[in-house]
Amino acid sequence: MPDRINVLDRAVEHPERRAALVLRVEEPRWPPLLGILLAHAAMVPILLGAIAFALVTVEMRPLVLGATITWGASVVLFLSGVRRGLSFRTPGGATVAQVSTSMALFGLGLLAFCGLWLPTPVPSLLLLLLAFAGMGVLDPIAARRGETPLYFAGLRPLQMALPSAALIGLIAMVLA
């Protein structure tokens, strides 16, 4: 199987020039090793937050939850910007799915952060779980449609499984 794959090879009408522009885009199936490490490293604090919650005293748990939710919301907000930025590479402009996904992620991240002022962290944790699990499912579909880099199809499910598992554990511990 080739290291790179042609994901886009089509003519696109350019409205300002009234001519067709042929684009050929080749992308790697997997990001470089450093990219894989950095993608997963961003999820480690959420996993560590779940572990810390189980180990710290009851008095320290709100601090651990607050830090974990803040980090998780920041990552979701960052990834919403990544998705929006990727839409700029789409010939003919961003699709409704691209903009909708970006805005949904932004809303989930912002609401999760704002949820820190609620008496319980469960809504924030659920919103983060929805965002991370959603990316794990939807990003591979978007990659196959050419809306995100091809390597999202292989990278995102495992990358998003880490925070999703940690958040499920946190929710279970909080509700116990």
From TrEMBL:
On the tree of life, the source organism's domain of life is: Bacteria
Q: Which UniProt keywords apply?
A: Membrane, Transmembrane, Transmembrane helix
- Tell me where the transmembrane regions lie: 33-56, 62-82, 94-118, 124-143, 155-175
Q: What is this protein called?
A: DUF3429 domain-containing protein
What organism is the protein native to? Endosaccharibacter trunci
